Amino acid sequence: VHQSKLDFFCKLGYGKQDICKVLENLGQEALEDDVLKELIRMGSKPQALESQAQPSPLKLVARGSCSTSPGSKWLGEDDSDSTNHLRPIVIDGSNVAMSHGNKEVFSCWGIQLAVDWFRERGHTYIKVFVPLWRKEPPRQDSPIADQHILEELEKQSILVYTPSRKVKGKRVVCYDDRYIVKVAYEKDGVIVSNDHYRDLQNENPEWKWFIEQRLLMYSFVSNRFMPPDDPLGRHGPTLNNFLSKKPVLPEPKWQPCPYGKKCTYGNKCKFYHPERPHQAQLSVADELRAKIKVPLSLGKEEEKRNRSP
């Protein structure tokens, strides 16, 4: 009885020493209400209330920076994503599965291949959206392969089922594409799909820009998930920069000058000259002028010294 009451009031946040003192005064058979009244009379407060009563120290935030409060974070998520330099990944499960199944079979193995590819890169936030009716047994008009993979991904908190139900024998399915775009937009992540979501682009102008800039297309080559190395085209960012929050700019690669030391372009030359890495690339005429000015200036200084008394 003593242990059960001790555990009960510890869960409420009271200290063990205060609880033991009250139980010694009132006895082990005291009612919980009486123990609670005595704790309040003693002035004991739960630890949660004490932490709230203490004012939190003010934090200086740089101008222009975005500071997120703890209340703005989603429930049930840790802070590992905030420290990770890789973007969150939101996968269109239906699109990936049908693409791997050659648009004939809903292949759950294709979803597993995509998830494993992002896991190997180090992504910690990966979500896959699939309609709830895919849990049902496969039928001839909608065959499903490797359906057990969906259960395994759901246990790992990776797969999320979008709601659906039956009304008078007809299936009512919620629009899973809206879930995918909304979550990816709020998490500032990347959408993995070959769908362009044109209807959602027309619905929200902010989503339009996000879909155009954060949509990662892919291909399956011999059961291998392969996104492109240039997701936004030849002149866009690389795949590594596209999937990271802090893109790394490539170092400029200078092409050596084909004329070498015989080059007469000087500072106008667009090529690299290894023979003068620490010198300003002056033209030949400027170099001659610089060589002539140095002895003339030295001679004028000597003349001034001789003339001075």
Automatic annotation (TrEMBL):
<dbReference type="GO" id="GO:0004521">
    <property type="term" value="F:RNA endonuclease activity"/>
</dbReference>
<dbReference type="InterPro" id="IPR040546">
    <property type="entry name" value="Rege-1_UBA-like"/>
</dbReference>
<feature type="domain" description="C3H1-type">
    <location>
        <begin position="251"/>
        <end position="276"/>
    </location>
</feature>
<dbReference type="GO" id="GO:0008270">
    <property type="term" value="F:zinc ion binding"/>
</dbReference>
<dbReference type="InterPro" id="IPR051101">
    <property type="entry name" value="ZC3H12/N4BP1_RNase_Reg"/>
</dbReference>
<feature type="zinc finger region" description="C3H1-type">
    <location>
        <begin position="251"/>
        <end position="276"/>
    </location>
</feature>
<keyword id="KW-0378">Hydrolase</keyword>
<dbReference type="InterPro" id="IPR000571">
    <property type="entry name" value="Znf_CCCH"/>
</dbReference>
<dbReference type="Pfam" id="PF18039">
    <property type="entry name" value="UBA_6"/>
</dbReference>
<keyword id="KW-0255">Endonuclease</keyword>
<comment type="similarity">
    <text>Belongs to the ZC3H12 family.</text>
</comment>
<dbReference type="GO" id="GO:0003729">
    <property type="term" value="F:mRNA binding"/>
</dbReference>
<dbReference type="GO" id="GO:0036464">
    <property type="term" value="C:cytoplasmic ribonucleoprotein granule"/>
</dbReference>
<dbReference type="GO" id="GO:0016787">
    <property type="term" value="F:hydrolase activity"/>
</dbReference>
<dbReference type="Pfam" id="PF11977">
    <property type="entry name" value="RNase_Zc3h12a"/>
</dbReference>
<keyword id="KW-0863">Zinc-finger</keyword>
<dbReference type="GO" id="GO:0005634">
    <property type="term" value="C:nucleus"/>
</dbReference>
<dbReference type="InterPro" id="IPR021869">
    <property type="entry name" value="RNase_Zc3h12_NYN"/>
</dbReference>
<protein>
    <submittedName>
        <fullName>ZC12D ribonuclease</fullName>
    </submittedName>
</protein>
<keyword id="KW-0862">Zinc</keyword>
<keyword id="KW-0479">Metal-binding</keyword>
<keyword id="KW-0460">Magnesium</keyword>
<keyword id="KW-0540">Nuclease</keyword>
